[in-house]
Structure formats: structure tokens, C-alpha cells
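seq as requested:
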Amino acid sequence: MTGTKVANQEGAKPHYSNVALTPALTAQQMATQSLKAAPAAYQSIAIKETDGKSFGVTWEGKQAYDNRCAPIVVERLKSASFNLATVLNDVLG
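C-alpha cells:
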């Protein structure tokens, strides 16, 4: 099977590569996609050491975080669905 979804730049439309997929390659691609998406999800979180023993955490708040990250979650779920289908097609024929 060819045509796996690849991670995209923030705001860009998803696209597909013409790489022949195997379950092992797909697993590597899935991990890479998630790692590339993570910084956008966590960009507003700041952790600062306060006294050498504890840390303070600041962020934009739940509603703003949820609103900003909803498209990231949707894209990751779409990609995961496609990747799972690819693996199942490879394994089950």
C-alpha cells in the first residue's frame, strides 16, 4: 500500500507521500508525526523553578488551550485512523 499521511506544518493542509508502507515503517511514521505535533500543543505551558524544590506552571487556561488544540487533536485522530487502516490492510490483506 502507498500513500501515507505525513505530518504537516501548522496551518498547512495534510498531504500524502508515495512511500511504500510496512507495519514497522508505519509505526515509525506515527511516532514521528506525534512528536512533530507535540510542540504546538504545549507551546503555552511554561514551567519555572520557584525555590529549588518546587515548580510553578503557567498556561493560557483550559478554554483557550482546548480551543487552540482541538484542530491538533482532530488531525492526530485522522492520521491515527489512516495509519491503523494501513497496518490492518498490510497485516490482514
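The chain has one domain: 5-92.
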